[in-house]
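If you are new to this repository, start here. Below is one unmodified record pulled from the training split, so you can see the exact layout before writing a loader.
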Amino acid sequence: IFTPGANITCATVEMADLTRHFQVAIIDEAQMISNTDRGGAWTQATFGICADKVHVCMSEEAFNIVVRLITECGDDYTVIHHERKTVLKPQKTAFRFPRDVKKGDALIVFSRKDVLKYATFLERQGIKCSMIYGNLPYDVRHQEAARFISGETKVVVATDAIGMGLNLPIRRVVFLETAKFDGYCLRHLEPEEIRQIAGRAGRFGIYNTGYFASAVPEYINKAYYCAPCSIGSAMINIPSNLIDICDKYSDLLKRWREIAPRSYCVPSDIETKLFLAMKLEEICDNKYLIADFVSIPFDVKIKPVHSLWYELFKAELQGKDYVINLIAELLGQNMVNNLHYLEIRYKMLDLAFSYCRKFDLREGLEPIMKEKKTVSERINEILVDKASRSCVS
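And here is the target side for that same chain:
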């Protein structure tokens, strides 16, 4: 979202610009530094952001590892502890859905399907809902949040996507589920995840007390009060300046994979990158181009998005005219009025936009942004429309 005259840049940590100088940089949610998939981006930002002053914000379990990174850089630091401005209390009795649903509740589940299911049920009972989940475009999430903030909706049904980047007037967080699929297996929520989500309750200035509840309060309440375990290591992404030590990019990734963890540093997981690199090496041996393409963020598990990424690579080999034609074909596709399709289409547009930025194809940026806005608006219309909600499966 570009705002004329703005002098502040806000981005996901993966998109942090390490080449520019800033007066102040803020790195939020730094407890993610040990996350297998994304942690390396926080480490990279902590080591590499160029600013006169850097604020690193985190939950307490990340304190020791972040301080170690700072001291490794030879920098000075000051510690500021922030306390909650509202009391947060557990509800000891089991929550019963839908009987116990009240205005100001945030109902937490862990899949898009369940968000739509519970929200549709409540809408049929006459309870207006906002919906927030990871696959929603950024601006749609904020539109749904705005409806809750304004009082247009009484309840928000959300995944753990609500735990970062959104400040909502939530009175009570309700865990309708206590397990989530993390990409590998179905597992119970970790104490730090429960604290992160439960902490959304009790917006200062609106509520004096926040509450959290669950259908199984014994588990949630016990986990919430568990003492946090200090994070012992930070994930490290493969440095780009190592690319010349191997003839093939996949060989470099294989060598990186074999590096044993040392002290507080752990090499990040590169299995997906290795898979993608080996696929591209079947048609091209340009390791620099392959490294650039492998670094473009997209969801490999979504087949249409993966296919577009592969087609963009082949078009890049043939020349910019082929890329422009491919993007024109994408933009020219008829838009199907289906929520799942629109979410995938938005991700395809996101991929095309990331490609254009990375490879400086400026003529592609504006039409892609325009189409992204159109898709976002249509998604929001579907979410708002009660009839459409009732038809979603």
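Two things worth knowing about this chain: The two ends are 31 Å apart (CA to CA). Confidence is low (pLDDT under 50) at residues 387-393.
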